[in-house]
Design a protein that fits this description.
There is one protein chain. The protein is 48% helix and 0% strand. 25% of the residues are buried. It is globular and about 60 Å long. The chain is built from 17 helices and no strands. The chain folds into three domains: 129 residues, no CATH class; 108 residues, Cyclin-like (Cyclin A, domain 1); 121 residues, Orthogonal Bundle (Cyclin A, domain 1), CATH 1.10.472. This is G2/mitotic-specific cyclin-2-like isoform X1.
């Protein structure tokens, strides 16, 4: 049967809403004989849904292939496709038997439509696909420490109040004896102290936040800058750590440049200047949540924190709020490890930042990565060049982001 079929170039059998130019006989309902005798009842083709939008929009209900009277009078019938000795007659044969008649435009251009459909099929599939936003807390529903019932409200609150923990990006102009380079030296040293004392990451981020907030409100001389740093770390340890380093340890690591009374006096001055406000959202708070949204593995986590700690040293990164810094660090880490730009719908949903908003900050992070191993401030680079941190600093920088546009 298949060998006797002709090309279906002009047959409009599959056009939605079309009527066939003949009548076909059908057997009685329930008859077991497949080759039942023909009767004179008209054949009604089964209406099937069209999976593509393009032909449906053309073949509307008002556009039907109407049979001319000459065709109805001749009584030509469509052969039974189940019989092997019959041949399928195409539209040209019907024209010869029933006389020529003009078909609508959509029938004349069936082949052109099908070609366009094939070309558009892949594009329509892409447009129809929408990346789902996953529930990143579904696995923690039974963990009371995850507080999944309140986690979204908590981070909405963090985003709302994160500005209270930010400082003016030009606050160093109010300092008469210190500058941004001295600040960078201090924080680079404190990153090493945090690693030597095996303190938590939360402690480091809060330490830097306390330093910047204090310096933005109180002028300090350069010989007291290191005292501000160790005192800020002492306060952060009291807030975050279970086992707090004693004051003598901090005095020892600062090469005994200060005594116990000076440290306690500075501690009193700092908490009063900051009005005892220690609970502010730092970039670390957002990093943990955003890394979960990115479905991060250990390699991505280490590299994201490497990029983030590079930003802690840089004074210019105070221009960006903590949540944007965290999201940009993860975006930069994903692009660096995958070697192409990547930002999922889930990341966009949970961070609240599109790829376009992250690009400027990410470009600066790539520049910091490129120069991390050179210069005098290499504390972060040396820390993340160790096996414990997965040699994160050794990764090839995502230089392609420097020229990227959206």
């Amino acid at each position: 049967m298949m060998q006797n079929r002709r090309a279906l170039s002009n047959i409009n059998v599959n056009v939605v809403g079309a009527r066939l130019p003949c009548s076909v006989a059908v057997g009685e309902r329930g008859s077991s004989d497949k080759n039942a005798l023909y009767d004179k009842q008209p054949f009604h083709p089964v209406q099937r849904p069209c999976p593509r939008k393009f032909p449906v929009s053309i073949a509307g209900d008002h556009q039907q292939l109407l049979l001319p009277e000459e065709t109805k009078k001749t009584g030509h019938v469509l052969p039974d496709l189940n019989e092997p000795d019959r041949t399928v007659i195409d539209l040209e044969d019907y024209k010869m038997m029933a006389g020529d008649f003009s078909a609508p435009v959509f029938v004349q251009h069936t082949e052109a439509i099908l070609v366009e459909i094939d070309e558009m099929d892949e594009i329509e599939m892409e447009d129809a696909y929408e990346e789902p936003i996953m529930d990143i807390d579904i696995c923690d529903k039974k963990d009371p420490l995850a507080v999944t019932e309140y986690i979204d409200d908590l981070y909405r609150y963090y985003k709302k109040v994160e500005g209270s923990g930010c400082v003016p990006p030009n606050y160093m102009d109010q300092q008469f004896d210190i500058n941004e380079h001295m600040r960078a030296i201090l924080i680079d040293w404190l990153i090493e102290v945090q690693y030597k004392f095996q303190l938590m990451d939360e402690t480091l981020y809060l330490t830097v936040n306390l330093i910047d907030r204090f310096l933005s409100l109180y002028p300090i001389v350069r010989k007291k800058l290191q005292l501000v740093g160790v005192t800020a770390m002492l306060l952060a340890c009291k807030y975050e750590e279970v086992s707090v380093p004693i004051v003598e340890d901090l005095i020892l690591i600062s090469d005994r440049a200060y005594n116990r009374k000076e440290v306690l006096d500075m501690e009193r001055l700092m908490v009063n200047t900051l009005q005892f406000n220690m609970s502010v959202p730092t970039p670390y708070v957002f990093m943990r949540r955003f890394l979960k949204a990115a479905q991060s593995d250990k390699k991505l986590v280490l590299f994201a924190f490497f990029i983030m700690e590079l930003c802690l040293v840089e004074y210019e990164m105070l221009n960006f709020p903590p949540s944007l810094l965290a999201a940009s660090a993860i975006y930069t880490a994903q692009c660096t490890l995958s070697r192409f730009k990547f930002w999922s719908k889930s990341c966009e949903y949970y961070t609240g930042y599109t790829e376009e908003l992250l690009l400027e900050c990410s470009k600066r992070m790539v520049a910091f990565h490129q120069s991390a191993g050179s210069g005098k401030l290499t504390g972060v680079y040396r820390k993340y060049s160790m096996p414990k941190f997965g040699y994160a600093a050794k990764a090839e920088p995502a230089s392609f982001l420097l020229n990227a546009t959206l």
